[in-house]
Amino acid sequence: MKTTTLIIGVLTLTLSLSACQNNASKTETDHASTDSIDMHMDSMSMSGGMKSGMDKMMNDMHQMEMTGNIDHDYAMMMKSHHQAAVDMAQAELESGREENLKQMAQKIIEAQKSQIIELQSFLDNHKNPVKNYDPAMKEKGFSKVMDQNMNMMMDMPKMDQSSSTDKHFVQMMIPHHQSAIMMAEGFVQFGKDPGLIAMAKKIITGQKMEIEQFKK
Question: CATH number of the domain at 38-215, out of 1.20.1260.10, 1.10.10.10, 3.10.450.50, 3.20.20.70?
Answer without folding.
Answer: 1.20.1260.10
